[in-house]
TrEMBL record:
UniProt cross-references to PANTHER family, sorted A to Z: POLY-BETA-1,6-N-ACETYL-D-GLUCOSAMINE N-DEACETYLASE, PTHR34216
Location relative to the cell: Secreted
Keyword Nucleus attributed: no
NodB homology domain location: 67-232
Xref: InterPro entries: Glyco_hydro/deAcase_b/a-brl, NODB_dom, Polysacch_Deacetylase
One cellular component (GO) term of this entry: extracellular region
GO biological process: one example: carbohydrate metabolic process
Record's protein name: NodB homology domain-containing protein
Example GO molecular function: hydrolase activity, acting on carbon-nitrogen (but not peptide) bonds
Highest taxon above the source species: Bacteria
Keyword terms, alphabetized: Signal
Organism annotation: Heyndrickxia shackletonii
Keyword RNA-binding set for record: no
């Protein structure tokens, strides 16, 4: 008798993608912003619905986590502190929300971006995981400039810099603009365990860990739409 082999379906995990929090963005920025109130309602829903916000290092234990979800913010804008404060207010004895901030090395301490002191503070809180978004935010697939991009600087040195600042492991990177190619991915594999794209969809643990999909949340995303995006 031939015993059928059942393929491991893996575990689905929504990875939410945010950039900035603010109430009055320009129309061309709607895709990058979410209002403070909407973000608060979304995070309250995750708590009420039994989701467990985790960081990337916890994926290896995902089978023991109830409704895991990862909350990410790209670029390291200063207004991300609002998200940190909302998550901190939701924390209690039974709920420990977490989020990942992908930081651009060259923009730390610049106007409208998180300062070194802020990064150290939120990293030490146990709420925010500081991860990499390259050193200068290049477009990796730009054919004309691809040969001028210093991949060691953009991929390796940002990891070492952030680890020196926070004293914690940096194991994940977000591709700027969601752009990458085989050369970039192979370089990333030398130093990281995970990489996220801007491709829409729910990530799965059986997927390529260096091309993980994310769920974009934008200015126009209603709470009902938010629920449908992640409750699949």
């Amino acid at each position: 008798m031939v015993i059928p082999v059942t393929k491991d379906p893996g575990y689905n995990i929504p990875i939410l993608m945010y950039h900035q929090i603010g109430d009055n963005p320009r129309p061309n920025e709607y895709g990058r912003f979410v209002t403070e109130q909407n973000f608060k309602e979304q995070m309250e829903y995750l708590k009420a619905a039994g989701y467990t916000p985790i960081n990337f290092d916890e994926i290896e234990n995902i089978k023991n986590i109830q409704k895991p979800i990862i909350i990410t913010f790209d670029d390291g804008f200063e207004d991300n502190i609002v998200a940190y404060d909302i998550l901190k207010d939701l924390r209690d004895e039974t709920y420990n929300p977490k989020a990942t901030f992908f930081i651009i090395g060259s923009r730390m301490d610049e106007n409208n971006y998180l300062s070194l002191e802020q990064i150290k503070e939120i990293s030490s809180s146990g709420i925010i995981s500081i991860q990499a978004h390259t050193m200068t935010h290049p477009f990796f697939n730009d054919g004309e400039n691809a040969g001028n991009i210093d991949l060691v600087k953009e991929i390796k040195e940002i990891k070492l810099l952030l680890e020196d600042i926070t004293g914690k492991k940096v194991s994940a990177i977000a591709y700027p603009y969601g752009s990458y190619n085989n050369t970039v991915m192979n370089e990333v594999k030398k130093y990281y365990d995970f990489a996220v794209t801007t491709k829409p969809g729910i990530a799965n643990t059986n997927n390529n860990h260096y091309a993980l999909q994310r769920v974009r949340v934008s200015f126009s995303t209603t709470l009902e739409e938010f629920k449908k995006l992640i409750d699949k």
